[in-house]
Amino acid sequence: MVEYPFLVGNGVCNGVDYATESCKNDGQDCVDCAVGIISRVGDGFCDGGSYLECSNDGGDCDECTLYDTDDLGNGVCNGWYAGRECGYDGGDCPVLTIDTGPASVWSVAYHPSGNLLASGSYDKSIKVWNVLDGSNVLKIRGHTGWVLSLVFSPDGEYLASSSADFTIKVWNTSDWSEVKTISDHTDWVTQVVYSPDGKYLCSCSDDGTLKLWDTADNWSFAMSLQGHTSFVNSVDFTPDGKYLVSASDDTTIKVWNLDLGTIDHTISPAHTNSVLSVKVTPDGTKIISASADDTTKIWTIEGDQLFHFQDHWREVTSLAIRPDGKEFVSSSYDKTFKIYDIESGIMLRSVFAHYGLVLCVAYSPDNAHFATGSYDTDIKMWRS
Length: 384
Description:
By secondary structure, this protein is mainly beta. The chain has one domain: Methylamine Dehydrogenase, Chain H, CATH 2.130.10. The protein has helices at residues 21-24, 51-54, 84-87; strands at 96-99, 105-110, 116-121, 125-130, 136-141, 147-152, 158-163, 168-172, 177-182, 189-194, 200-205, 209-214, 220-226, 232-237, 243-248, 253-257, 262-267, 275-280, 286-291, 296-300, 305-309, 316-321, 327-332, 336-341, 347-352, 358-363, 369-374, 378-383. Strands 1-28-27-26 form a 4-stranded antiparallel β-sheet, with no helix packed on it. A 4-stranded antiparallel β-sheet has the order 2-3-4-5, with no helix packed on it. Strand 20 (296-300) and strand 21 (305-309) form a beta hairpin.
């Protein structure tokens, strides 16, 4: 708040409080949706006193506008969240926004049916949402630390969660009861992922290990893989289930032969800072990685670099590959997501998505949508 006795309408807020009438009538410089210097209707700044009158202000103050209003497809949402035009706004507006409550969203996962979305939060809870209307189906408590990762089994019968409390929990989706707690890791369990055939659950941890669990034998211990020299942040199976790909704070990506239980090969260094996320394309020929060095890369499965993307300006936190294998999306601390064509390496969309850091992203099974979760506590669903 600036209290200097400047002139009314000079672009400076001269009132004492946003809520006072004097402030609202102060050349409209102090309204609570004002951003920057007020000039004229349609100038890209919000001149209205409420979102209702704001909506007629040259399109500058619509509820989902984040920065200067410009053209459709410019990476900024120019329409109303509830308005039809927002859905056609060049793909810049979410089709659904879910306010999850008071805690940041660290993980999201679609049920194989595509009808439900699970989210894991800083408040140690798991919530399940109806993707059609964003209604909350249920809230699950059981972890004593942040819920860092979620994954549904391929048949949709189970949900696995991992946490900063060093544990993995498995939940039966028929009644959402807890059926198993795994406590073998000695540090944060950063990610869990099922093998394509559902026979194994793999976990990776800040204790530097990857572990496999036999789902047919009540998720009993099957194998431990050691080779990284720092936190292991992410893991993914190849489509044939014979190899694992892992990413670490040690700046490397490792490919593991599961028949032998050994490292097949290492990409080193893959990045100049921690590798935060790694995914294998559905055809098994490529690896996509994201890093705290603000970049994403595409590699052949053998470890040859194909593309190096430097479009984010902060840490790239999460990756998701569209199930048809044509595109991938990256999320970042820069509050954006970016979509790339995997074959050509062309960036297709860049959208300022959240008011807070974007922490996670996941595609729907039908390729139609993807969801982002943020430090701002919102989940947003977007057209693919």
